[in-house]
Amino acid sequence: MGLCIIGQEKSESNIKLLEEAKKVFGSVFFVPINSIRIGLTDKFSIFYRTTDLFKFKAVLPRISRSYHSYAYQLLSLFPPDTFMPIKPISFLLSQERFFLLTVLRKRGIPTLNLHLSRSTKAVEKVIENKEIYPVIIRTPEKKTGIVVKNKTEAKTVIDALTHLKKNILIEEVVKNMISVYVADPYVLASVKKKAKDIDIVFGEGEMKNQKINIETEQLALDAARAVEAQIARIDIFPGETPKIVNIDLNPDLIKPSKVTGINLTQKIIEAVAENYREHQKKPLLMKFLEDARSVVKDVLKGKQLL
User: Fold this and answer.
1) What is the DSSP string of 5-43?
2) How far is CA 97 from the centre of its chain?
3) pTM of whole model > 0.85?
4) 100-110+175-272 is classed in which CATH architecture?
């Protein structure tokens, strides 16, 4: 039973995953994504140096958001019966955060409130509403945002971004956030992240172990399944109605392991191995039907956000 881990670098999390995988899988191979060669000649090929990656029947992607478009193209070329705990479509759906939350909303998953625009004029009615403040304004490609407390401040920031021809995100301020680490069908751990500054979504924050109720666990699993990912960190804004803030398919696993006392890399590899064994048991016909449905769903998701 062999496993190929595709990542950008041998980070501490990836090294730990590699070590844990060697305890469970017969052979384990780490491949830097920047060193992969894709061929489109008389047939598809994916090579790392002289190694044909198609020989691996299980692939664990560890790929950050900036590479998600490439990840979708790369992983989609593997044979249909290749086991992947994070599907190619997962990367396409989560590449851009507004699109991700739109998809989740369409699938009945509660999410943070956001507005996307290209100009001040387009969001005039939004920023006139005094009840929305404070809000954070950022561009989709940037993690950092600017907190504004009134219409005048909002208009100044949006005017500047409009001049730079940038898309504009206006979103609720999240002061406290729960990050839930899942490896389907398991909820492995959860931490509470409290802001050192007002923007906690992408800020460092203070991380503490956090117990969550079964409803929040189910929300995290539902969100991961909605983007066809077995492994993910699901960020949730707690409250009377918990809301999904973000999904990270390539989270750091070291700090939350220390905070919770749970070896997340070990638990993830155990879940990957368990799901891979279940995958191998499926009859070939069932796999074929699932793959056919997956292709149709990929097309529909891309066009209609189903």
Assistant:
1) EEESS--HHHHHHHHHHHHHSSEEEEEEGGGEEEEESSS
2) 9
3) yes
4) 2-Layer Sandwich (3.30)
